[in-house]
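**Archive record**
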Amino acid sequence: MNTESAQTKTPLIYQAPMEGVIDHHVRALLSKIGGVDVCVTEFVRVTHTKLPRRVFTRLCPELDQGAVTPTGTPVKLQLLGGNPTAMAFNAIRAVEAGATAIDLNFGCPAKQVNNSDGGACLLKSPSRVEAVVAAVRQAVPPEIPVSAKIRLGFEDRSAYMDNARAAEAGGASELAVHARSKVDGYRPPAYWEYIGEIRQALDIPVIANGDLWTLADFQRCREVTGCDAYMFGRSLLARPDIGLQIRALCAGDKVTPLTWPEVASILYEYYTTTKDIYPAKYLGNRVKQWLAYLKLSFPQAQVFFEQIKRHRDPEILEWAFAQHLDQSGTELQDQLAS
């Protein structure tokens, strides 16, 4: 039983997978900013077929570079599915494609996913969670970690411990727990006390996830759960340096959050990196998507969004960017004005 408290440790920070939101471009930027120790990909959907290598590398191009981001942050490849045999042989294919760690998704609440025997629906039957984890664990080489991510249950939170124990019994090396049931969705609050109970009961590391928006949230969650690892998804997009802030806090250093112009510069790098990838009719959509999260922490992001929400013209988008950059963006502003 894991009873050691981690109140004085600097915790590990994980980037949560977010389908259609956090792709390899975002992972690269978040790890470049710093404060993120582990990234996790969007899920690869597994049915009954053997997936070709390109399916894995499309969602995780980092597989061709040792399964790390350009700045060296390790990336776990996540699989989603309910058939143990199919999950096992596709986990092998993923490792052959370059995966150095496999994560298993038992937390996705999306109706379409759950209706297709994937994600949180498996939490209805802890024995199925154990079977999938065990099949993958037995299939891949022993040096490849196999982790899992769960919610507290499906219709309610009553089976939270059964599912956590099932993941451990199947051979998971660590367990991320989103402190809500499927029915809870993303509505506050997150029930961190359940994570604390799971951490005390299991012998594997437990990663706390859910409603970690601020340093105060992190401190309260740490007090409740005693975990030494935390996973950030929407909140990491809203506050890209939250990991750095936590490191500074735990080290007793002054916490100096990124300013809005600095965040705007990061967003501009994202825009320039991705602008040639998408058709012109979608130009700026991914920037607008990220702004939807940033405006939860920065009121200037709402202003920025209003400036560009109806536009796809690169000149207008880049003019708007120039309005939000500080002195480090002077050269860009001069370039746009000429």
Summary: The longest strand covers residues 38-45. The mean pLDDT is 93. The chain has 15 helices and eight strands.
